[in-house]
Amino acid sequence: MFEPGVDLMQPSGWLPLVFALVMALSMLAYVILDGYDLGVGALLDSAESVEQKDMMIASIGPFWDANETWLVLGVGVLLVGFPMAHGIILGALYLPVALMLVALSLRGVAFDFRVKSKPQHQPFWNKAFYAASSLASWSQGFMLGQLITGFKQDSEGYLFSALIGFCLVFAYRLLGAGWLIMKSEGALQLLAVNWAKQSLWLTAAGVAAISVATPWVSQRIFEKWFSMPNFMMLLPIPAVTVALFWFIWRSLSRLPTRFAQGHQNGAAIPFAATVGIFLLSFLGLAYSLFPWLVIDKLNIWQAASSPEALMVIFYGVVVVLPVIIGYTVFAYRVFWGKSTQLRY
Length: 344
Hints:
By secondary structure, the chain is mainly alpha-helical. The protein has helices at residues 11-43, 50-60, 64-67, 69-81, 83-92, 94-116, 122-148, 155-183, 186-217, 219-226, 230-234, 236-260, 269-289, 300-303, 307-334; strands at residues 292-294, 298-299. Helices cover 79% and strands 1% of the residues.
């Protein structure tokens, strides 16, 4: 699993591991935290009234901008910690990265302009927020597909990546719907239950596609999963993932009756279970890819900056990372609970 000759007792051995862990956890935090608010944006066009759209925006208003901090941290660590991999990865993903950045920029503009523009212009900015959220989600899924295929630049690689992008849009919609079930009440809450049901199976299809493709593209990954005793030890990951999908469906089928009776018990289950699916999928993918940043071509020690440079950056990470975590926890603690009507 480790590069031959790597001494984990030396900075040149353990520093790349630390930075790979920080980068991975940053991307995981981004996918979950920004994933649900991208999902809410991708659901905005399905709302039935202006009031419902305002409530959806209010549910993510205190969080959405801060959630993107994790993307900046993850990409920043890739740039300064693994410059060789940064060049290869962003070089291969130039177009989807550009699309994502344009979409995230448009999303930020639309978020503010939808409430500051004249009433006749607000539907345009709502559409822009929806389109930008969907495009950013699809771009991230496309990049994930390219990472899994080892940046395969052919029709099969592009088709698979486009499929994963499509499925990730619905995975984010599932997260977003789960978030709205927790944060809203009444008609919007019931709509969110239906949105979650509609998104569930395409999310499952995306997880299944990644699970099949990852060992398919690399014999090394295939052996890590299907050799004994690894297979038996890793079996709980797909088994629990399947169980969580079933648990979400069961919960979504029961929630409308509970809401009609005035109970909010179980409202957090779809979101929490979806987060569990994301965590298990991330764990499986991390196990498959480690220690490679580019599958079977470039690992974390080959791509890392010099130990001296990494040590300087390490001190910065030790200061910055707790601040980001503390701010995130504080923001969610302050604004937890049901969303209130959007007012400016």
